[in-house]
Amino acid sequence: MLVNGKQGNLISIRDRGLLYGDGVFRTILAINSKARHWPLHYQKLKHDCIALGITCPDAAILSNQLNDLLEEYPDGVVKVIITRGEGERGYAPPISGKSTVIWDISPPPAYPEDRAEKGIKAGYCKLRLSNQPHLAGIKHLNRLENVLAAAELIDTEVDEGLLMDENDNVIEGTRSNLFMLLEGTLVTPDLSQCGVAGVQRDRVIDWATRNDMPLQVRDIGQEELLLADELFVVNSIIGIWPIRELDQRRWMDFPVAKQIRMGLDGEYA
Amino acid sequence: MLVNGKQGNLISIRDRGLLYGDGVFRTILAINSKARHWPLHYQKLKHDCIALGITCPDAAILSNQLNDLLEEYPDGVVKVIITRGEGERGYAPPISGKSTVIWDISPPPAYPEDRAEKGIKAGYCKLRLSNQPHLAGIKHLNRLENVLAAAELIDTEVDEGLLMDENDNVIEGTRSNLFMLLEGTLVTPDLSQCGVAGVQRDRVIDWATRNDMPLQVRDIGQEELLLADELFVVNSIIGIWPIRELDQRRWMDFPVAKQIRMGLDGEYA
User: Fold this and answer.
1) Least CB–CB distance from B147: residue in A11, A14, A20
2) pTM flag (> 0.90)
3) ipTM over 0.90
4) I need a surface site. Which of A55, B27, B157, B246 has the fewest CB within 10 A?
5) Which residue ranges form the domains of chain B, and what is each CATH number?
């Protein structure tokens, strides 16, 4: 673990990351001392920091810290957090701009290996995501909605919960982005009002564009989801998981999800 | 500063308070080693912990920790944070229930002393509070909306910013609750969809009830606010600040705000 470039696993109780969730983060899969898609994650970190007015260290500085971490721990789930750092008492952001950078790594995930092939059982969470255009898309540290949504799934057989907004649009999974294949078009929810825009979502969108697959970013209702030819959830750790079960609907084959998964895997073999 | 009862100013980077803002807090005024309205703050802490499923330590344990803190630092702004503690990777709350308790104290606030008498200049923030009934009223650590709202006020002459929800209801200040006196009735915004329910808000409501002042908790629109006979914002640190200026409207006297202020001050002299 690294805090501001030095080995350590502690931060100040006056860090605004703790006090207000005033920071951003990313979760990255590391294999053989290589962090998958690090440049894309850095772009997102930088984008999210700018959106919140947080100083994002240069790519070279973060890359060096990441390499230090991976030298000691070559495999696992890397988490990088950038907070606005410490400041005076009160909500107003300090002018100093001295952000805090935290690196942590956890063991590789222990998900059943056949999920990418056989698909998962999805279900709807009761909690509705709130609309906040100033924070939508940003992977910030205000994640209580995800916590409450994930808590709904404890002791259920649901592998991933889907979240709707207050207008009944399906937005994302508790820890993933969502794609729907409908009559040959790939559709993913619009995230301009709520939700987190993940790196893996961008990669799927990019893949579709490069492979001339029609793509739409728009609102998706619950009923429309059940008409889908395929559904899948994605994130940087799980990759792509097709949905085999949602409500009364079952899906048996996921040829397009598989095609995209193999396409993306091939690019970073 | 205390962390889990021991002197210290550091917490683990794996604490869910940092990772997800998964915790609650309160801010308390301490004078001469006495924390004002501590029993009310404890009630709120307990209520908010229960709402989020976080284990709240017994009152006796927290009171002892508070006394330890005030023995060393008799005056200032006390902050107590209770987080869900550490857990496995992922949003789902751990079963363990081992929460983290953090105490901190800052110097007494340096606000101009005449604000309670002469009133403040208020203004509207552009940011709209998002509706989330599962989190409304709770003083949790997901405070990015307050940070963004407070940032709007930097380099302005506005002493406190008022926040509306997406339906144009006025909800609260960036760091305070709001009251309006309208034709002899005290009105404060309904907080069932968003906002933070402060201890000082409860005290004013309680005072009105005990003093037979008509009171309503309901939605308040921007236009109605300008019709008010008096407006004031409250929190545990500032007490009661009347608003002397909002948009084009000016108020010169605040007899009811003063009456309530002196009533509340007298109760805890």
Assistant:
1) A20
2) yes
3) yes
4) B157
5) 2-106 (3.30.470.10), 115-267 (3.20.10.10)
